[in-house]
Design a protein that fits this description.
The chain is 42% helix and 8% strand. With 171 residues, it is mainly alpha-helical. The chain has a domain at 15-91: Winged helix-like DNA-binding domain superfamily/Winged helix DNA-binding domain (Arc Repressor Mutant, subunit A, Orthogonal Bundle), CATH 1.10.10. The strands form 2 sheets. A two-stranded antiparallel ribbon has the order 1-2. A two-stranded antiparallel ribbon has the order 3-4. The protein is globular, with a radius of gyration of 21 Å.
């Protein structure tokens, strides 16, 4: 991946530690998964997930605090509360699907059922992957870190490209 590496000790300017701070534990992902599957009420989450009441309350509050879910009273009965995914929460779907696909491949080893499909043609969604700006699927060996000032400029160091085919054997 070239000579430039991201500064691994810089936790302030990297999105991964920030994301893990909010989502980095199992129950947050399970609640998010339930939200994607249409659950909206505390008691639904509680009975469906089998989570302890105090943990569910804590995780829902955290997801609301971080803007991933919103808490709103129902118009017809202000005592009843719904939890809905926000745009920020919906933007986590590709990450959730990538983790699910990885788990199917390396965790349980079997595809999930039901299968998530494209509504238009009823075909399963493609594997989540890394894509170039023009839509080409990229492999790890085709990636490199660049300083922001060098984005879009042609590659200068051809030596790195010469060793990449040798590294592909290690896959």
């Amino acid at each position: 991946m070239g000579n430039l590496h991201e500064p691994l000790n810089d936790m302030q300017n990297c999105g991964l530690p920030a994301a893990l701070e909010v989502m980095g534990e199992r129950w947050s992902f399970m609640i998010l998964r339930a939200g994607f599957n249409g659950l909206h009420h505390f008691e639904e989450f509680l009975s469906t997930l089998g989570i302890a009441r105090n943990i569910l309350s804590n995780r829902l509050a955290r997801l609301v605090e971080h803007g991933i879910m919103k808490r709103q009273a129902l118009a017809e009965d202000r005592r009843k509360i719904e939890y809905r995914l926000t745009e920020k929460g919906l933007d986590l779907l590709p990450a959730m699907l990538a983790l699910r696909q990885w788990g199917e491949k390396y965790g349980c080893g079997i595809p999930s059922n039901p299968v998530l499909c494209d509504e238009r043609d009823a075909q399963p969604i493609a594997l989540i992957g890394i894509h170039a700006h023009d839509g080409r699927r990229l492999d790890y060996w085709e990636l490199e870190w660049r300083d922001a000032a060098d984005v879009g400029k042609p590659a200068v160091n051809h030596e790195d490209h010469a060793i990449k085919p040798q590294l592909n054997v290690l896959r």
